[in-house]
Amino acid sequence: MKPAPFDYAKPASLEEAFSLLDGHGEDARLLAGGQSLLPTLNMRLSAPAILVDISALEALRGISIDNGMLRIGALTTHTELKASKEVARAAPLLAEAASHIAHPAVRNRGTFGGSLAHADPAAELPACVLALDASLEIAGRGGTRKVAAADFFHGLFETDLGPGEILTAVEVPVLRKGFRSGFAEFARRSGDFAMSALAAHGRFDGERVHELRLVYAGVDIRPVRAQTAEQTVEGKAVTADLLADAMARLGDDLDPMDDPHASGVMKLHLSGVLLGRVLSAMAGAHR
Amino acid sequence: MTDKSPLSIHDLPNSYIGRSVPRPNTRRLAEGRGAFTDDLTLARMAHVAFVRSPHAHAEIKSIDVSPAEKSPGVIRIVAGEEMARHCTPWVGVLTHLKGLKSAPQYALAVGRVRWQGEPVVAVVARTRAAAEDAAALVEVSYEPLEPVVDMETALDPSTPVLHPELGDNLAFERIVDAGDVDAAFAEADFVADEVLHFGRHTGVTLEPRVLVADYNPGAGKLTVHMSTQAPHMMKNIFATHTGIDEDDVRVICKDVGGSFGIKIHTYPDDMAAVALSVMLKRPVKFVADRLESFVSDIHARDHRVKAKIAVRGGRITAIEIDDLTGIGPYSVYPRTSAVECNQVLNLVGGPYDFANYRAVGRVVLQNKNIMCQYRAVGHPVAFGVTEALVDSAARAADMDPAELRRNSLVPDDAYPYTGASGIRFEALSHQKSFEKMLQLMDYEGLRAEQARLRENGVYRGIGLAAMIEVTNPSPMFYGVGGAHISARDGVTIRLDPTGGVTCATGVTEQGQGTEAMIAQIAASAIGVPLEKVRVVTGDTETTPYGGGTWASRGAGIAGEAALQAGRALRGNILAVAAAMLQAEADTLDIRNAAVVDTDSGSERITLADLGKTVYFRGNELPDGVSPELVATRHYSPRQYPFAFTNGVQACWLEVDPDSGFVQLLDFWVVEDCGTVINPQLVDEQIRGGVVQGIGAALYEHCLYDDQGNMRNATMADYLVPMATEMPDITIEHLETPTAESVLGAKGVGEAGTAGAPAAVFNAINDAIGVLGGKITAIPATPESILKALGKV
Q1: Nearest CA distance, B713 vs chain A (angstrom)
Q2: Which residue in A has a C-alpha nearest to residue B722's C-alpha?
Q3: B716 vs A5: CB contact, 8 Å cut-off?
Q4: A119 and A26 belong to one structural domain
Q5: pLDDT tens-place string over residues A82-109
Q6: Are residues A159 and A68 in the same domain?
């Protein structure tokens, strides 16, 4: 289990990183925390000619709140995300989800931006940024652009990132009054990729839930919103009957594939269980 | 010289027997100063990587190595026919397993590949990375053949035969028929039956298989440094198949990062690496990486058992089983792959007193990875079957499952006792152990809690499992069948002029504490502090010939040899001391590394001073005194084929009926392994074993597709049990020593693994039975539990 030979460069600036990416094109891969990339190299599932290590780019670090926006640098580790007071206040969903990511050793090195750019369909954070309607900041030679999370995840390990582009930060609207979030997942063992995970975010007005976003991971080739279920509960009080109704309609939203740990039928069932549990907990939080 | 000490080994004032002293190698390992085989780098050492078959069954049409040979750093590329000229094939049969058949297995596939992962081409290069780079360039063209994947259809006439020369895919068949089974079922008050499946899994060692073979053409000697359980056995195998004189082969094994029965077999890649060293006349290192471990380390279990039990008068009266197991394409050499099935037949019903037993066992060949002995060979299957049957029978009879067990266990006053399958027990403590368990776990209290929680929609279950364990094997296990596997083990103990004591033994340290155990016994037997004792293991040239580590034999067999050798050395020391001190030897004792007057305890001479006199100033010794400050003793059990142990395990868990997830809440073990030498090491063996058994019950499964490809051969997809999910494991002991040895120790290395799957399985069914659910297979996954509940 040795990787195929590769070159390594550690740029000190974004400019230098862009030059390296321009020079090597598709033969280059960005290296951040390396928690997904290095295993694929060792298993020879990928063999880039050069790794461009962006871990020295200070512009990609830091967590701040400005103008009602929480800004999280792409190099923020999962451990930092989990420990941040700003994140706990402005986007508690991210902190909650971060504790489900793998184990401490992985969380200490794995990065927020890396998880989004890698776009593993079972990963927690892509589902969360979609639930939070986050905006992703992408830098390239020609400048910086912003992409809504809803437009970022194209498919299995595929994103909106183009050649020569680097994900630099994520912006999340600071939690507004009445909004709550919830996260839960079913994984065979603590730290495993989930058979199904649910990130939920919505506004509560007394018993009633509004603007709910239900985003599942682990059930499709990318994080997927359960819009039929969302519409089913929109503006209604969360009751057992309503939850049963929403769960029954989940099959209209999700069509999970089989994997070695669970059949698609099992994943759909678990997704329903998550829906009931997460929404109940969110609704109960105000009582 | 006889031992006149009025106290036994167990209660000498300075005895370490029964004390949890720290392992002498702990600090070294904890500081990262272990000496594992992969740490070894030799001059001119080359590395080998293997091209493995991507097909479960295929003809090799052609092999093109020319692009690979041009890859940087390549030294040599070898395929099957050439390798066969340097390493002869082997056949995994033993004569006492009547009718067992298998085909010659080659170090590298010749003509046909028979499992996905079988080594086909060896690539030797200057580094492992260079070898892997070149291996990726080797082009093998295959013509796929229909794979034999499902063991249930392996014997059908329409199924291809793996080895045409064998005639069919049946490797072994055994039938046991004792008592009058038909009459017992006819007369039964209640009958229950089950069809149970035990998934194929493997032993995931932290350190993979690794060896460095070093052939020295100048000396004509082959030295193999390897992570192994049985250095002397491997020495014989390397010699036999490379043609080197066995006396010119040396096997050295230093630290081992876990073995579990994985590192005791003949692997084709290991054999190829050794042969390559001889061919190339230079050291060759092979380290199995994690991906190749999953498709080349032996797998285990994979049994389908149809089983039936009869109850009459509230007691078990008969059991009938039909066991089918698929072992891959070859019976593994030299221990064979018939042993697990054979053990299942021997052990089913083992804890219980009944006379009517019928069993059919069939072992079939198939195109999956090879299968052989892994920790607790056959035991989890045998007790999984037995204990599932007992719970089923209790449900059928509307009895408390504890009551049916209590009524049916072999009584503590029944020994010596012969079980229905013919296995012989010297002395066990099933009844006392069982009562102790019910008390320890507060069985009645848990039943009340279970009933109370059910009213709130919380489903918890209690699983009980009585078990026995095969330990201290005699020559009847392997040697009798023709394998060069020693049932005997020896210990040589030497006193140096420093007063230090060095023990050398043929049993090996796998990380389980063998060296601590030997040191404790030797220190106690001689009368020296533990700090004065050094233990040498794992070198065929410097340790007594022996069997190594398997079948829970280290403490019971080498421990007894250490005791006898220590006593002999003590006698020798006292004889010298008596001559020097002009005293009678039987008035002297050795305490705290000094010869003392037995009665007063006053010191007469330290062992260091005695040693210095013997070695440096022998002229001061009286005439006619010829000191021997070294003694060797060997031991092998002979009265019983095995020293069985017994125990009871119990599990308390909760099933989430919505998700099918199982939460383990508590786990208890009552174990009787005879004399306990180091309680902490014993308890950790049991805990580790229980965790591995939980792995089998809930997580570990080698999943194959219908083409014979393993689908989950990574650590991300093959689920080993992890600490977060494990319950606390409470352990208590009874001690029924074996009378066959003075030490009285039996083995304990496999007990946890033997009983835990049955306890977990029964607890799940106890939890979901009220919901109408019942699982019939392990590992029990959330999905299989929801299926049992009719929810998915």
Answers
A1: 11
A2: A189
A3: no
A4: no
A5: 999 999 999 999 999 999 999 999 999 9
A6: yes
Burial of B552 (0-12, 13-18, 19+ CB in 10 A): buried
Quickly state the pLDDT bin for A80 (edges 50, 70, 90): very high
Residue A177: count of CB within 10 angstroms of its CB: 5
Using alpha carbons, select from B233, B225, B284 the residue that is nearest to residue B253: B225
What is the average pLDDT across A277-286?
88
Question: What domains, with CATH codes, occur in chain B?
Answer: 426-466+644-792 (3.30.365.10), 488-635 (3.30.365.10)
Here the CATH number for the domain that contains residue A260 is 3.30.390.50
Question: Which residues between 116 and 145 in chain B have a beta carbon less than 8 angstroms from any beta carbon of chain A?
Answer: 127-129, 132-133, 136
Same-domain check for residues A102 and A150? yes
The partner residue sitting opposite B291, judged by closest CB among A1, A192, A193, is: A1
Q: What is the pLDDT of residues B50-77, one digit of tens each?
A: 999 999 999 999 999 999 999 999 999 9
Among the candidates A119, A140, A173, a domain finishes at A173
pLDDT of A11 > 90? The answer is: yes
Name chain A contacts of B136, Cβ cutoff 8 Å: 4, 44
Instruction: Please provide the distance, in angstroms rounded to a whole number, between the alpha carbons at the two ends of chain B.
Output: 73
Q: Are B397 and B190 in contact (CB under 8 A)?
A: yes
**Which chain A residues in 184-223 lie under 8 Å from chain B, judged by CB atoms?**
186, 188-193, 195
Residue A241 structural domain = 194-284
Q: B711 to chain A: nearest residue by CA?
A: A260
Query: Checking DSSP bridges between strand B221-226 and strand B249-252, what pairing results, if any?
Result: parallel
> What is the CATH number for A14?
3.30.43.10
Separation between Cα atoms, residue B636 and residue B642, nearest integer Å: 11
State which amino acid sits at residue B314: G
Which residues on A lie below 8 Å from B786 (Cβ)? 266, 269
Q: What is the domain count for chain A?
A: 3
Residue B207 is predicted with a pLDDT of 97
DSSP state of B166: G
A147 & A63 share domain: yes
Q: Tell me, what's the pLDDT at B479?
A: 86
Question: What are B97-124's pLDDT values in tens digits?
Answer: 999 999 999 999 999 999 999 999 999 9
Same domain, A143 and A249: no
Could you tell me if B116 and B56 are in contact, meaning their C-beta atoms sit under 8 angstroms apart? Answer: yes
List, for chain B, all residue ranges whose pLDDT scores fall below the cut of 70.
1-14
User: In terms of domains, do A68 and A45 share one?
Assistant: no
pLDDT band per the 50, 70, 90 thresholds, residue A284: confident
Q: Nearest to residue B337, comparing CAs of B304, B320, B362?
A: B362
